[in-house]
């Protein structure tokens, strides 16, 4: 080992000599830009000898292949073959995201409503991992487009992992599971042009108007939040929960930003995106590094079983809001994000969130979207990460005993020598009996007709004034500029049926946009936009 020690010190001295740096400039850099410098400060010497994956030390001459027996260099062959295989299938939606760790803290007694251990005991803290993401962009796409933003979180409770998958609109896009694939494809790139195509989007929306409500949320001011830290997020489903006596309640969970909800205008988003397409991820990383830990207040909108039976709308329809006055809201606790991931691939790309990951005290939603999710989320995670994805460190629960074993690694202890079948008489893991779990379940039959009332309510009541309504219609009109006449005609009809005022405003705004566009070609339009950016950036203006 003496020879390896000499090599170690030679490499160390070369490393230090090549890393001369004027530390004065550190004071002007943000935490993202200082990451590598911080690593070197934490590790003033190389962290060890370089080896192959089998542990064989790599001699410095083996890091060169020119004029050598190239295939005798294990370092080179392993390096290249691993690079060919180091990417896994990116997520179909929410491909681009950033992960972070934190905790959930109980701040209010909610034992009246649920026996879930994670929500009981004021002051109790439960570790969690979260993933903030944008829905439509590919893995390397920009973050500031007007698309769904989300926060998925996994709480490592004493009773198993509890996952919440949240979006920034309060409502979901559709209520029939068969619509998932078509709507995703309509929002993705055209298979021939490989470009995003609003003809596809509005063609689908005009044929399935139930999607309009969520789309109106996206076209409103909340459509482009000012970073992940400043958006409210919602799981959308109505969850059934129960207490230790077996009493059932129905709740919607709301995660309200303690930083305050803040949004960007189209112009602001365009300027920021031109300078930094990773603005959201950078903002979150820097905030945690500077100990400005983002937090969200967890609330529950609550109905009892008797409330459910005496209202005039479907509270399980995830494409509509609950009506004011039909529920009450209580605070449960707060989510705090306070630790950056150590490695993006390990803790973010490999993280698998499943809304069916529930705990005793939370039966879960009863709608058809959730029932489909129970099947398809594990299916996609088995495809992306393998059948043992819950044995990957970031996904592992605190406690796990199962009869599943073998398959593609990781395997952990693979249940060692325990019986591999159930039931058995050889003391393998056994199920438990929960006396307070409700013995009855609701049978929900959802209406299949298209209902424009939720969209009408949002436009006239949730949007707080005419100025906001005009911004929504301007955004819609902008997306309709290059839509073909047949799709445009049907879209305008649906908008007008939703609200006469909405249809009128969109027509008027679209007419003005097209008149302006007719006076200049695309190059001239972009040149004028560039001038606006320059004026925004130049202090003399």
From TrEMBL:
Membership in a protein family: Belongs to the catalase family.
Share an example GO biological-process annotation for this protein: response to hydrogen peroxide
Query: What SMART domains does the database record attribute to this sequence?
Result: Catalase
Q: Which Gene3D superfamilies match?
A: Catalase core domain
- Which domain of life does the protein's organism represent? Eukaryota
Q: Which UniProt keywords apply?
A: Heme, Iron, Metal-binding, Oxidoreductase, Peroxidase, Signal
Leader sequence residues: 1-19
Positions bound to heme: 377
Q: Mention any one GO cellular component term assigned to this protein in its UniProt record.
A: mitochondrion
Q: Which residues form the Catalase core domain?
A: 51-430
PROSITE patterns attached to this UniProt entry: CATALASE_3
What is the organism field in this record?
Manduca sexta
One annotated GO molecular function: catalase activity
Specify the protein name: Catalase core domain-containing protein
Q: Which cofactor does it need?
A: heme
